[in-house]
User: Fold these one by one.
Assistant:
Number 1:
Amino acid sequence: MDDIVLYSMLVLGGIAFISAVVLYLVSCKFAVTEDVKVMEIDAVLPQANCGGCSYAGCHDFAKACANASENEFVNLFCPVGGQNVMNKVAEIKGFSKVEKAPTVAVLRCNGTCQNAPLKVQYDGITSCRIAARISSGQTGCPTGCLRLGDCVQNCKFDALSIDPTTGIPVVDYDKCTSCGACVRTCPRGLFEIRTRGENGKMVYVACRNTQKGALARKNCKAACIACQKCSKVNPEVKIENNLSYIPDSVSAAQYGEDLRAACPTGAINYYSANEVKND
């Protein structure tokens, strides 16, 4: 009996030893050596893994930075870490620092409770994605904010909240990192990442309704009616499908106030610093 136990132990021990040797040899042969620069860059990243850089996570972004040429590097940016982090990455790479204008998310909708009163009562799961599939919304606007807060729930940085008075989301620009979670979450594509110009100024059309003027105004007082008055202020303003769009290239510092004043419905938002001008 003792011989059987001893023999079994020897056999099992031998199998374990051989397996260990095989695993060691395989691990040596197929080992992946991590680039030192990848580890150095990864160490300075915020580890938010938000996807705002368009990569799966901070580690993948670190790899992209490590492998990028100087020309390719200027197109890489970590929205959470911002310019300070990218400056550190540039130092690790031995590249010159590239300044990038700060950006934030904006809501392209002025469909507040005052501008777009409820026409029907939605009685279902509190989810914009689900509501968008089964109805045109409580206000009748086919592209307006559904006011159910999917964007708020998906913001990792507590930069979004629903204003109890207006009923629509408000962006806290001190907290917004331009990660793009709200852009990806909103089923109606109402969020956009915009560049903050001189003194933090921005100007944009806060409407996505492509219905013709009278019908659009029926659903929302602040709807864009494509009257073309904004394009007379600046010819860069585009008007397509009954909807105006102000490109990021239009200087908010130079044209913002005039564009806002020219809009007869209040569809154009002009921001100066953290103050909102929504007349």
Note: The beta strands are 103-107, 160-162, 169-171, 191-195, 202-205, 238-240, 243-245, 268-272, 275-277.
Number 2:
Amino acid sequence: MEQYKQDFIGFMVDSHVLKFGEFTLKSGRQSPFFMNAGAYVTGAQLQKLGEYYARAIHENFGDDFDVLFGPAYKGIPLSVATVIAYSQLYGKEIRYCSNRKEVKDHGDKGILLGSDLKDGDRVVIIEDVTTSGKSIEETCPILKAQADVEVKGLMVSLNRMEKGKDGQVSALQEIKEKYGIEARSIVTMAEVTEYLYNRPYRGQIVIDDTIKAALDAYYAQYGA
């Protein structure tokens, strides 16, 4: 496994973003782990997070895009942190754009926050994690309603590697089949498990035999 992936897994654990236990997901599934990007709260954390995303986006999609779109609400700080990092690391100015949950009818009007979208814009969507693909189902119509844009891809931090809404293939593969969008992640849950299972990290075992058994049972039911 590449060093930057190991570093990112450790970063998620250190930031208390990746947790193990019993969690009810937005999809209704009962999961033995949970990833919450809202736990990145300090300047140093957001700076590092933006750098990880920028490197992964550059590696997977290159510089061939104009706008980084972060769906509200968690996608807003992700998109801002990443365009800053992208400028610093690669010297290219990418515009950030997000949506509002409610349309604003005064001042800076409309549904968009940050840059406007223009016909011909090439867009990469950024999210924390995708379990069922529901968020992309909501995001694509928002983008298409604003301008004739080309969605180049989706970047998430963690690929949960489980079935999407239709229950046949992974959520990321489902997104590709339904919308023609290439979906990528910084790390996969298989890589997280490989790195942390029964291996001391900062003096503790993050994934022990009990958690590993819960993960195996979860993926037996929901794994893609």
Note: The mean pLDDT is 90.
Number 3:
Amino acid sequence: MSAAPGRPKQARTAARQGEGTPVNAPIYLDYNATTPIAPEVVEVMLSCLRQHFGNPSSAHAFGRVAAHTVATARAQVAALIGAQADEVVFTGCATEANNLALLGVARAMGGSKRHLVISAIEHPAVMGPARQLEEQGWSLTVVPVDGFGRVSPHDIAQALRPDTALVSVMHANNEVGTIQPIAEIARITRERGVLLHTDAAQSAGKIPIDVDSLGVDLLTLAGHKFYASKGVGALYVRANTPIRNIGFGADHEHGLRPGTENVAAIAGLGVAAQLAQARLPELGAQLRARRDQLHALLSAAIPGLILNGHPQQRLPNTLHVSFPAVSARRLLEHAGHIVAASLGSACHSEHDAVSGVLAAMGAHAVRAAGAVRLSVGAMTSPIDVQRAAQGLLEAWRTATAP
């Protein structure tokens, strides 16, 4: 029996989404950090763990079932982004996919081209390997962003050189949600013979993604950002893109990612991709409605609340705001029994230093100090939003009381 899923259970999922959070539990508004695993994803993962446990490289019946499961998931992920199945490489996470994209292209280039361009607001999973290449003698250009956190295609064009190998600009920012003009950047890089990578970890499942429309050569996905499990990601590699492995062992994943595949997590990623593709138009509108409802409630009650990020070109679920006259950390401490949210990226939110994203946007220290990222998800109900807004308002009043 195959572990491949059937038609997504949209009606059942929709019913769960409208239930709201139990009154004795904090309202989860940190979907950009991670999402809960969809029940359909849990089901297929359990079937793999309990029954379909074979090694996909084995020639016997158990291995063939596992290999079929991986192939099915590869096709499902490819369908989500408009790619061919053989252009999808499974990884252990988005960080690994980003490292493979940057370091793998660098390794393939040898000494012919040794210049890399990134934006000033990239996730550490891109900034880290970029700095590593710089330490190895590569030239690195970091392109600034405007006050909305948006990269100018003109600035990208100005940064390109004859020896530029790769440009990496995230599809949507993980903190403020600003969506980048990737298709415009791609027209520039393609004309100049430069490869383009985009980290789409935050955008997948929230807005449409089509690799041909975007014009990218490489694209990163993170399972746990769209209702799959942690510990699985994927890298889209357009056919004929020069890239080499950065890990060594066997020839799994087209020779780019050695190691026996995590069949259960990969199967779950496939189902999550299938669900995301099926419900994207409806879910996008739902997320935008919840986000705007929350923004309206907070703006009406808190004078001086500032929106961070682009007002229109922004993820439909992301509301990044600066509360006046208060430390965001203190605000969230007061609101913690009602709201679960983050100061910014969950990957580096335990420190009080000004967010690198807000600093790149030119936000002053007071504005940055009061910044909170509120991100809604598929299970966020209108009642949740009302409770969260009231809890944040009460916490702000308490934190700013003389």
Note: Residues 1-18 have pLDDT under 50 and may be disordered.
